[in-house]
Amino acid sequence: MKLAVLCHASAGGSGVVATELGVAVARLGHDVHFLANQMPFRLSMLPHDCCDNVYFHQVGAYSYPLFDQPLTTLNTANALVDVILEHGTTLTHAHYAIPHATSALMARDMTAQTKVMTTLHGTDVTLVGLDPGFRHSTKYALERSDHVTAVSHFLAQHTLESLKLEVPIQVIYNMVDTDRFVKNADKRFRARFAHPDEFILVHVSNFRKVKRTEDVIATFAKVSSELPARLLMVGDGPERAPALELAQKLGVMGRVHFLGSFPNVESILGISDIFLLPSSQESFGLSALEAMSCEVPVVASRTGGIPEVVTHGESGFLCDLGDTDDMAAKVLELLKDSEKYARFSANARARASSHFHENIIVPQYVGAYLDVLER
Ligand code: GMT
Fold first, then answer.
1. What atom in ligand 1 is closest to the CA of residue 123?
2. Cβ of residue 40 lying under 6 Å from some atom of ligand 1
3. Do residues 129 and 153 touch, judged by C-beta distance below 8 A?
4. What are the domain boundaries of the chain?
């Protein structure tokens, strides 16, 4: 199989899923061509001897005084046509509908040589795709794709209802590499962030509004007023400044570390005790799954697809949106009871392995690819 993959390269779950899935498919012997405006960050971290059948094609942005913004959709379609004609890819996997599904459909029309599979990740439907500025084009792109998948039942259902779609949507959950995302016993590394008697709470995201990073800070402030703790904030984005301001206002700045887009997120998750995810929208919550694989229980908002990942009362706790009192209470409940903590921690790891292991998820995608190609 020769596969083209379109994805957003910036730090974010959809690019991570696209990269890790593409590499896993390449390891099965298929040629995989990634197209993005820059190299997706997890692709740049691959060992050089990983696979000689993974290719990266940078999509350039053409600027011209008449255009006040780059015309990314057209540039991507054009770059994809080049890849199809030069490398003979016959299937395009568009991760995140906007604008990739549209670019892929254009390339399909131009070449008549590729099928298009679109994977919905979240705000491509729940937020951006429903905006009047994108609604018709998103619906059209999904209806004309050869196959559509979504990363949770919540997202599939939401898409069918909100866009009034009549095409089927297959649910394929996100996956985690349970060999890479493991507990990190390196005490010296842990000591860079916390004293041995301090608990480590962690949040990983792209710091957008939907992530409610201020709730992370507010929850942490309540926890750290009762127990010695540190908060590691991994990632970057527009909500970093408000989160930082709140940390200062609440007097916890000395115990909160903003680490930016830390490359080896697994090393941080591996030394953490609790993962916080208070999002207002979350179609899946890949970072929560990665934390679970590292034996870290999750305290999150009960929203979107999170309940399909985190089992309330077993591998973490789900709280009402914005209820930072309850979130802090649940964190304290776990941290103050070592037996309960150990049970949740083991459950988190077991759930990650039994439901979201690569060996379970990759065959579902490969099966979908083969079905689409045979049609
Ligand atoms: O939809 C987004 O916000 C973008 C996307 C990303 O690139 O970060 O995140 C979504 O896709 C992830 C991977 O499938 C999911 O784990 C996230 O839950 C989802 N984000 C939201 O729904 C807010």
1. 1
2. no
3. no
4. 2-175+357-374, 187-355
